[in-house]
Amino acid sequence: xxxxxxxxxxxxxxxxxxxxxxxxxxxxxxxxxxxxxxxxxxxxxxxxxxxxxxxxxxxxxxxxxxxxxxxxxxxxxxxxxxxxxxxxxxxxxxxxxxxxxxxxxxxxxxxxxxxxxxxxxxxxxxxxxxxxxxxxxxxxxxxxxxxxxxxxxxxxxxxxxxxxxxxxxxxxxxxxxxxxxxxxxxxxxxxxxxxxxxxxxxxxxxxxxxxxxxxxxxx
Length: 219
Hints:
It holds the Pfam family PMP22_Claudin. By secondary structure, this protein is of the alpha+beta class. It has a domain at 4-28 and 71-194: Butyryl-CoA Dehydrogenase, subunit A, domain 3.
């Protein structure tokens, strides 16, 4: 019962991780730059994401521009796009697989099949967490290095936005969920290896009869 509750808790964490991963991939606020000008129509907030750049105006207007050209983007944005999409796909596969392998569900067949499914789902979550953690770290490093660069003007410097923090938290949830699923299955298999089932050996009737004959011969 404790293992089933732990798997259910890991499944809830994985759901939060999947939703956060998708939200971080689609949100446009990976970079944020607040510039308050003297003119009322001056842009006060500029946001840059993986797929689009958005601008808030002090009048309440909001405009976004999609990034159509892939080759013109920096390398870290191209890598972030690829790894975040892979993270979303792997986490979605992990949700489907662990739904079959969890102990609280009636899917997946026997115990060994359900344990294998849980282990495979845990591996998917771990990989999804790694794929989500790498681009957020790389993106944050680029933002900080540009912010500390003295040759870049202040108007071109940005700070990490909400999507970066959402990506960090989601990757942490996916990693924790994957470790819980893998460890729960591993402990069960390890217990079976350490304490194998006892086998009772009963002497055959033929051996008893042979022993009886040998005793009679000596009498």
